[in-house]
């Protein structure tokens, strides 16, 4: 029986790291969930530091291919914030 590496996000959800690397739909959904956990005001806008921590919680590090896949739907804005409304819209479109 093969073992799979899992990460546990802030909400306690288990994330399959191998699947994150192989399945972009799963990656975007997991990233959306992790970012939603730290989006206190549910505006789709968080600090860049919170953005990095949330993605690291699911095993995605800055510079990884998966990080860049998520960033395609996000925008860094003034003041050190990341707007991820585009990611939310993409995940809603997929699901």
Give a description of the structure.
With 95 residues, the chain is α+β, with helices and mostly antiparallel strands. It contains five helices and five strands, in the order E-E-H-H-E-H-H-E-E-H. The strands form two sheets. It has a three-stranded antiparallel beta sheet with strand order 3-5-4. A two-stranded antiparallel ribbon has the order 1-2. The longest helix is centred in the N-terminal third of the chain and has 15 residues, at 24-38. The mean pLDDT is 90.
Which structural traits does this protein have?
three-stranded antiparallel beta sheet, 5 helices, alpha+beta, 5 strands, globular, 95 residues, two-stranded antiparallel sheet
Strand order of the largest sheet: 3-5-4
**Total count of helical runs of at least 4 residues:** 5
Instruction: Assign an overall shape.
Output: globular
What class do helices, strands and sheet pairing give? alpha+beta
The overall strand count is 5
Which sheet architecture does the biggest sheet show? 3 strands, antiparallel
- What is the residue-averaged pLDDT? 90
Strand content: 15-25%
Radius of gyration: 13 Å
Low-confidence stretches: none
How do the helices and strands follow one another from N- to C-terminus?
EEHHEHHEEH
Share of helix, binned: 40-55%
Distance between the termini: 31 Å
In short:
With 95 residues, the chain is an alpha+beta fold. It has helices spanning 17-22, 24-38, 48-57, 65-71, 85-94; strands at residues 6-8, 14-16, 45-47, 75-77, 81-83.
What is the element layout, followed by pairings?
Elements: E1 6-8, E2 14-16, H1 17-22, H2 24-38, E3 45-47, H3 48-57, H4 65-71, E4 75-77, E5 81-83, H5 85-94
Antiparallel strand pairs: 1-2, 3-5, 4-5
Helix pairs in contact: 2-3, 2-5
